[in-house]
Amino acid sequence: MTQPLMAVLLPGTGSDAMFVRSVFAGPLAAVGVTLRAPDPRPGKDLVRGHLEALDATTGPVLVGGISLGAHLAALWAARNPERCAGLLLALPAWTGEPGDAPAAVAARYSAADVRARGTETALAAAVAGVDPWLAAELSRAWPAHGAGLADSLLVAADQPAPTVADLASLDVPAGVACCTDDPIHPSEIARTWVDALPRAHLGTTTLAALGADRESLGRATVLAWLQARSTR
After folding, report:
1. Quick check: is 106 in a domain?
2. Considering its fold, how many domains does the chain have in total?
3. H/E segment holding residue 69
4. CA neighbours within 13 Å on the CB side: how many for 26?
5. Is 22 a domain residue?
6. Which of the 8 DSSP states describes residue 215?
7. For 43-80, how does the pLDDT look when each residue is reduced to its tens digit (9 = 90+)?
């Protein structure tokens, strides 16, 4: 009997596996793909923990994630091409070195605030004026990182994403998705990734849609992957 295809998807900076599941579990189940969403290992070993979770997979799998998770999955796939069956890449935030990318700048600022004023006060500032759904996600996920939150944010902010050359080496079906109104994860970055990947399609949604329905981002990513898989 053929084993069902598995997707191992990683969370973004300061986020968690619960958000990954809320975005992807339904859309993947609809196409017969099993989801595994590892929890982050907070602190300085955040990136190492994510990569070790991918290393622990057996057989060719779909890999990907959201923001930082998408970056790390693509880097892992470039180093392990024989183990990657495809890519599900939501909200890439930069290409190559982070530099002054908006997501990196935001993570560095938040890390400094957490260290200076503590998680509770920094969180109150971070959620002030943001959409209620995002405030709820941050309010759940940030405290779960415990004393490792600031280090988690800094490690993510300094972590290079795949380069154009890395992406060009990934000859597998890839679904890339962005929110067209998201200044932290600019749609131009997603388009750069799609242009670099040999077999990729772009899916789009909006932050407003994501706030109303987390699966809108998962559907956009999975649909783009299905389109990439059906073309060569």
Report:
1. no
2. 1
3. helix 68-79
4. 12
5. yes
6. H
7. 999 999 999 999 999 889 999 999 999 999 999 999 99
Task: Quickly list DSSP for 102-134.
Answer: HHHHHHHHHHHHHHHH-HHHHHHHHHTTS-HHH
Please give the Cα distance from 224 to 204 (Å, whole number). Answer: 9
Packed helices 149-158 and 102-117: angle between N→C axes, nearest 10 degrees: 160
What is the residue range of 31's domain?
6-99+156-229
pLDDT of residue 114: 98
CA distance linking residue 46 with residue 203, whole number of Å = 28
Whether 88 and 9 have beta carbons less than 8 Å apart is answered as yes
Q: Give the predicted TM-score (pTM) of the model.
A: 0.96
Residues of the chain with pLDDT under 70: 1-2, 232
Q: How far apart are CA 121 and CA 175, in angstroms?
A: 37
**Pairing mode of beta strands 34-36, 84-90:** unpaired
H helices then E strands: how many in the chain?
Answer: 11, 6
Q: What is the pLDDT, as a whole number, of residue 2?
A: 59
